[in-house]
Amino acid sequence: ADLSAHALVLTDAHKSFGSNKAVDGVSFSLAAGQVHALLGGNGSGKSTLIKMLAGVERADDGRLTIGDQTIALSDMTPARAAAAGLRFVHQQRSTFPELTVAENLAIGGYGFPLAPGGRVRWRAARRRAAEVLEKYDIEAFPDQLLGELGPARQAMVAIARALQVGGAGGILVLDEPTVSLPDTEVRLLLDAVRKHADHGQTVIFVTHRLEEVFAVADNAILLRNGQLVSEVAPRSITRGDLVELIVGSAVDEI
Ligand code: ADP
Ligand code: MG
Predict the structure, then answer these.
(1) Per-residue pLDDT averaged across 243-251, rounded?
(2) How far is the CA of 97 from the centre of ligand 1 (A)?
(3) Does the pTM exceed 0.95?
(4) What are phi and psi of 111, to 5 degrees?
(5) Which of 22, 52, 97, 118 has the fewest CB within 10 Å, making it most exposed?
């Protein structure tokens, strides 16, 4: 197969918890520079799949190809995932409301100027933070406490930090980033995600909300009981037809 047009190819991913087949033979190929929604109801296997990609849940089987590199999923570690260009914003975001925006961006040290011994150079870090905020169009100041921002902007800072890992390209993986956001904030965050893709970023966007798929995704991968039941372009399908595809999968808020 010609893998060059794809940012990521997942082949035959498996993960069971005892007799529960949480992820049961999932394969897909993701085109570069698009938003790929991973859509499914509660318990359909979305987070388990993401955790296997991240190397935090050990896969029983499957492999991942990124560029010319193929990794057995059972050998995946967080370090290998980062080296392959995968950048994660997990549902439990590790941002700190009581720290400044610049401090939050600099945590982890990626792309930020470090002194010998690994200490952050704060004056340079604030300048770097200002550049990052400008680049990603985030209305915030480096010295502002993160907790002063609205929830969408806090999520944007978490995404901007994830994108500091490694070089250009890569794949941004967002696990349910809109959960617990009010509607107006959801809109802001979806616009930001869309903009990342419009600038060439490949995005995996995990959600159980149908309306977000129509709002932001180029491609939707539907999971049910750990299996891929369908892959569709939301643009080419009506809401009713998509609902029909996922009937039985208990997707919320249809
Ligand atoms: P989703 O993210 O789509 O809601 P999950 O991947 O969290 O689904 O869960 C898929 C299935 O795997 C569910 O049946 C869930 O109960 C089970 N599961 C997930 N994590 C564990 C775990 N650590 N131990 C046992 N079962 C788990
Ligand atoms: Mg989940």
Answers:
(1) 64
(2) 29
(3) no
(4) 70, 5
(5) 118
